[in-house]
Amino acid sequence: MWAELSPIGRDASTGGYRRYAWTREDHTLREWFAGQCAARGLDLAFDRAGNQWAWWGDPDAVRADGSTGGVAVGSHLDSVPDGGAFDGPLGVVSALAAVDALRAAGLRPRVPLAVACFGDEEGARFGIACAGSRLITGALTADRALGLTDADGTTMAEAIAAAGRDPASLGDDPETLARVHTFVELHVEQGRALADPDAYDQSRSAVGVGSDIWPHGRWRIDVPGTANHAGTTRLEDRDDAMLKHAALVLATRAAATRHGCVATIGKVRVEPGGVNAIASHVATWLDARGADEAAVRRVVADVVGAAAPHGATVTDESWTGTTRFDTELVERLATTLGPDTPVLGTGAGHDAGILATRGISSAMLFVRNPTGVSHSPVEQADPADCHAGVAALTAVLTDLSEAAP
Ligand SMILES: [Zn+2]
User: Fold this and answer.
1) E strand or H helix that includes residue 211
2) CA of 405 relative to ligand 1 center, distance in Å
3) pLDDT on residue 320
4) Ligand 1: centre distance to CA 117 (Å)
5) d(CA 123, CA 292)
6) Torsion-angle region of residue 131: left (phi > 0), alpha (psi -120 to 50) or beta?
7) CB 352 within 8 Å of CB 56
8) What is the pTM of this model?
9) Mean confidence (pLDDT) of the chain
10) What SS3 class is residue 224?
């Protein structure tokens, strides 16, 4: 499976992946997934956001005990700009491999089982992460999504139509959600917790269970200044927005350190943006996250406090509180995987988090990442750890789908 996936959307100059929603590469990946599912005799269904669900067993069946709904495993195949090979695909490949492992062991699920492939998880093209899962849960409305534009000014509606799908079909999808009782997303870890010898026993911690997604938010900071000539204006006469911005970047870092969080300023827009002009305005964005909601709020409060003397304003753009995965499911996965299985939170958003907010029993498995690097071509996972991930997912699926000979 890796051999087939590896050339798709790979940029020869960077070695990174550029697999954006509703592009030719995205289409090729969806076709690849459909082919894998057909080869395994799974029944493929699209939902109203174009996410793919491949079922083993009838997802609409009512079981003898009156229960309904199945267990789904999977992840996404799209990427960030110049992303790594594992972020997303590891979860899809592992899910397909787990189905193969169940078959090889002669097991059949009693509870219907799906391999899911979400679209547009990274939001690399239209700017909204987890767009596929947000659409079917109603967290992102079809009206808003269809009007989003990419860097070339193409709307999502135009992109979906160009990909051969009907943009009018986009929308929330309670029928699909009703089929999914439980969702487990396996993902490469995007950090070094499992690889940290001080945190976990390296002989046993190739796979961990995700307990929650950290609270996170985005804020826009507007820093005022006065445009003037870079050559003729004396230093003491300047009102330089960029200089104030620099102070705020340092204050942000100090606040994050003080409160045990992470905070990032990685996007800046400068006016007038000339090499020989003093900046008259800087718009900049703060991304802050941490394990504790109150601590993240304190970071932002400190940034607001640092901004005020400069006349800068801080505006809320988005906030997502802690997303807790289903506690019982987390415990069940940890029990299945055995004693000393690491249970850890994550600072990254995932489709599993979106489904959890809609009441679907959700959790994640993380596979060790030796460097912790993600959203980069050098993202890595050792083959042995990937196989441990498949074995873990197979054990989890066997348990949750009540698979038996
Ligand atoms: Zn991902």
Assistant:
1) strand 207-213
2) 33
3) 87
4) 11
5) 26
6) alpha
7) no
8) 0.90
9) 96
10) strand
